[in-house]
Design brief:
Layout (H helix, E strand, L loop, with lengths): L1 H17 L9 H17 L17
């Protein structure tokens, strides 16, 4: 999920760069760093779901 959000942030950064949109609070560098942070969190395993119930071996009868 975080990787999808990072891809959206990178797409916004690209659109802002192509359209020459600039703001004092949010610029292309800020969006790029935010995207890299989200990718790093995704690769670290943050936000992943785990199945805590053990699987049964064999068939159910």
């Amino acid at each position: 999920m975080l990787a999808i959000v990072a891809a959206i942030v990178f797409a916004l950064a690209l659109l802002f760069d192509l359209a020459d949109v600039s703001s004092d609070a949010i610029d292309n560098g800020t969006l790029t760093v935010l995207g890299l942070l989200l990718v790093a969190l995704h690769l670290a395993g943050v936000g992943t779901s785990t199945n805590w119930r053990p699987r049964r071996s064999g068939r159910r009868r």
